[in-house]
Structure formats: C-alpha cells, structure tokens
Amino acid sequence: MSKFKSPEAQFITIDGGRYCYRRSGEGRAIVLLHGLTDSGRFLWREFIRHFENEYTVIAMDLRGHGDSEKPKRGYAPADQARLVAAFIDRLRLDRPVLLGHSLGGIIAAKLAIVFPDRLSKLIISDSPLGAGFWKNLGLVTRIPRRGVAIVGLTMVPLLGRLMFKFRSPRTMRMTLESLQVFCDPSHITTELVQEKMRSTYEAISQSLWQAVIFENLFRDLDRISVPTLIIHGSHDTLVPLDWAERAVSKIQDSRLVLIENAGHFPLIEQPDQFNQAVSQFLSASE
After folding, report:
1. The domain spanning residue 177 has which CATH number?
2. Residue 1 located in a structural domain
3. Under a CB-based contact definition with an 8 Å cutoff, are residues 228 and 124 in contact?
4. What are the tens digits of pLDDT across the range 121-173?
5. For a FRET experiment, which of 12, 31, 33, 151 has its CA 20 to 30 Å from that of 61?
C-alpha cells in the first residue's frame, strides 16, 4: 500500500448519530462505501489519489465502522441505504456516482433500488448480492473451509461475542489468511489488520445475518435503472464469479469487468486495473 495520506476526517450528524467521511477533489461526486470491518480511512487510498484531480471523492465510514456512530442496531441493508441517502442529501450532492465494495456494494444496490433518484451511476465490487436464505447459505459454505468455521462461530451470539472480546491483531490476521481474501498475502499489512479491529461486534454479526444470510436483492435487481458496472476479482474466494454474472444478467444496463490476479480486494491488489475499469465506465456516457 502506498504512503498516500488519506484526507482529513470530517463529521456530519444524521438522525442524532455522528458519521465520519473523508472528502477530496473537485467536480462530479463519487461516494465510496467500504465493506465489512473496513473503513473509508484505509481502503480507498489508491482510488482517491487517482480520481481526486477530476472528481469530488467522498469515502464514508458506515455505521458501526471506523470513526462513525456505533449503535446496537440499524445494520439491515435497508437501514444502511436510508442512512447513505440521508448522507447524500445532507451534503447536497447532485446524483453522485455510488461505488460499494463487498458489504458496501449490497448497501449501494439497495439504495439504487429504493432511492433511484439519488444517484447517476452504480459501481459494485465483489459483493454477495443475496438471493434469499438458502442460496445465501450455500454461498457461505463455498468459502475456504476454515473461513466457514470462523464466520459460523461469529454468528453464534455467545460464542461470537466471546471470540470478539478476545480477538487480537494476530487472530484477525489468521482470519484474513484463512479466508484467502488476497492472492498475495503480503497485502495483509499491520495497518490493514489494525483498521479491521475498529468495527463493533453488532456491526459484524448483524451485517452477516441481515445483509449476507437473509437479504434477497436478486429479486429486485431488475429495478436498478442507472448504468451499472460490476467489478470482480478473478480469484475471489468469498464471492464466486457466477454470482457477479448472475447480477449482470438481471440488471438491464450493466457490464462486468474481471480484474485478473486479484482476490476479494481488487482495488488493493490491482489498483491500476480497477481504476482503469472505473475511468472507462465513468467516461462512457459523459
């Protein structure tokens, strides 16, 4: 990861909660939504450096993550989508581009379905756009075997809380290695591990249950009316390629770009490929 410094944190109050975001650049707005246990401070550095000369790039810390509000509830995709829509309104952004990675992609897709007037384009990267309980459960069983055990135990309330209480940077690193989120494990840096330690148990467990296990976005994907780009790492072990292909078949104005030699985080492993795909998509109809 480069030494590019993230923009300074700013804060906004929405429905009594204090939410963090980082803003850089001028021009048409791109709102960035990170994935589970990530934050806007770390994940998007290469992206911001690439796009800040042409766009206003705004990386939000989702509820329960980073420096944002950490309530006990409110982690269903519909709740998070309402929060992001309110965030867009409060910042007076005129139909920004919305880019979500993993969990952030679920929230971005939900917003595009429920609040289609809030955005102009949608970009989703390596997101498990759910298709109901049984298919979603099948998705979880396809991740690396040790990862299945870790995810499963996390979702059991008593065991999950106990694991969370005694977690450490070492166990977080072991979890990331078990899930094989990167093709090259050297990307599991100390800073990345520390950043992933800042999420709450409620955010993790409720997001897994409500966004990954029970959500059924697939039935409504055909309601997405904005141009959509789906980006996917060629070696993503958490979200199989066929899930991305299925989403593209459902969203009318959509396309799929495969990032070679990348796992679940192509924006970190292959930033040049990732940024080029986004640039081409943004300029296609401008």
Report:
1. 3.40.50.1820
2. no
3. yes
4. 999 999 999 999 899 888 888 887 666 666 766 777 777 788 888 889 998 89
5. 151
Is 269:182 a contact under the CB 8 Å cutoff?
yes
HSE on the CB side for 44, CA within 13 Å?
A: 28
What residues make up the domain containing 19?
9-284
pLDDT tens sequence across 25-37: 999 999 999 999 9
pLDDT at 153: 64
Total domains, the chain: 1
For residue 276, give Cα distances in angstroms to 21, 42, 161, 235, 272. Answer: 24, 20, 41, 19, 6
Residue linked to tokens 């999950």: 160
CA-based nearest residue to 21, from 112, 91, 104, 72 = 91
pTM: 0.95
Place of tokens 């048409």: 28
